[in-house]
Design goal:
Layout lengths: L22 E2 H7 L5 H9 L3 E3 L2 E2 L5 E2 L5 E3 L2 E2 L12 E6 L29 E3 L7 E7 L2 H8 L7 E8 L4 H9 L1 E3 L2 E3 L3 E8 L2 E8 L6 H8 L4 E9 L2 E2 L9 E3 L2 H11 L37
Parallel strand pairs: 9-15
Antiparallel strand pairs: 1-4, 2-3, 2-5, 5-6, 7-9, 7-17, 8-9, 10-14, 10-15, 11-12, 13-14, 15-16
Helix pairs in contact: 1-2
């Protein structure tokens, strides 16, 4: 506590606080991370959005006190942030869920994050309970949606330890694509990263966020995954020296790189700490060949 006295008596008598201005529905839903404004406009025209019990129309506005439903489900209205858009870089440890609450009472990543004045953190790409590594959180819902949308085509790079030693045919098959229970999938890049006994490390790249995708791809070929670390998401890498369970703010350069990757204009931002430089065998935009001749050391 700073020791400053806080006036808890509310506004002076005779001066009521002005209500928050109404905003367009597509802006409210985009800020909450449901989609882009243009996409939400199409949802409104299709009758998927309701406000206070009636179907919304394009151009309708709403306030925090209004009841907004999307496909029949209530929407938490996120107030406009009281500060510039922010992105946090978090090193997720194993043993944390990436939802805000867990019915089993397990620890959640959100308990480790700082509070947001007038807003909330929106996760960019989840990780499962036993996966560790890079996670991004932002106060900009449209940025989060754009970064996660398949059309963005952003790399997700992982360091993965498997049991066994796959041959070149297996790696080529994983690069070409295999059929999983929810459709075809493949690695965009595969690079070897060393071995110890029967365990082998690889760096792999995928461009979609399907549930347990990296694990399921390896397991489809008979290779169980014993360790999985996300080391890069798009242009940002897991910073060296950031321990598990800790976070740091993105730098202006990192923020600009993310907005550029999402196809959005970069907002104003405060200066931050030293930027992280993407590491690993793929770097920025490089692709692994998936062959034995392309050996690279795991960083």
């Amino acid at each position: 506590m700073s020791g400053r006295r806080v006036n808890r008596g509310g506004p002076a008598q005779g001066h009521r606080a002005a209500p928050a201005p109404a905003e367009k529905l597509q802006k409210i839903l985009a800020r909450a991370g449901f989609g882009s404004r243009r996409e939400i406009e199409r949802w409104i025209e299709a009758g998927r959005v309701q406000v206070n019990g009636r179907s919304a129309r394009l151009g309708d506005r709403a306030r925090a006190a209004d009841v907004i439903l999307l496909d029949g489900r209530p929407v938490d209205v996120v107030a406009p942030a009281a500060e510039p858009a922010r992105v946090l870089i978090y090193h997720k440890p194993t043993g944390e869920v990436t939802t805000r609450r867990d019915p089993e009472g397990r620890p959640t990543v959100f308990r480790s994050l700082p509070p947001v004045r007038g807003g909330r953190w929106i996760v960019v790409g989840r990780l499962d309970f036993n996966t560790l590594g890079l996670m991004l959180f932002t106060t900009d819902g449209e940025l989060a949606h754009r970064l996660m949308h398949p059309s963005a085509g952003l790399d997700r790079e992982y360091a993965v330890r498997i049991l066994g030693d796959p041959d070149a045919l297996v790696l080529e098959r994983l690069l070409r694509g295999v059929d999983l229970d929810d459709g075809p999938a493949r690695f965009e890049g595969v690079a070897e990263g060393g071995a110890r006994g029967t365990n082998h490390w690889y760096h792999v790249v995928v461009r979609e966020g399907r549930r347990r995708l990296v694990r399921r791809l390896w397991e489809s070929q008979g290779f169980p995954v014993s360790r999985l670390i996300r080391v890069r998401f798009g242009p940002l890498a897991l910073p060296r020296g950031l321990p598990p369970g800790r976070w740091r703010e993105s730098t202006p350069a990192e923020l600009q790189a993310l907005y550029r990757a999402a196809g959005l204009e970069t907002p104003a931002a405060r200066p931050r700490a030293t930027p992280a430089t993407p590491k690993g065998p793929f770097g920025r935009g490089r692709r692994g060949s998936g062959t034995r001749s392309d050996r690279r050391d795991r960083k």
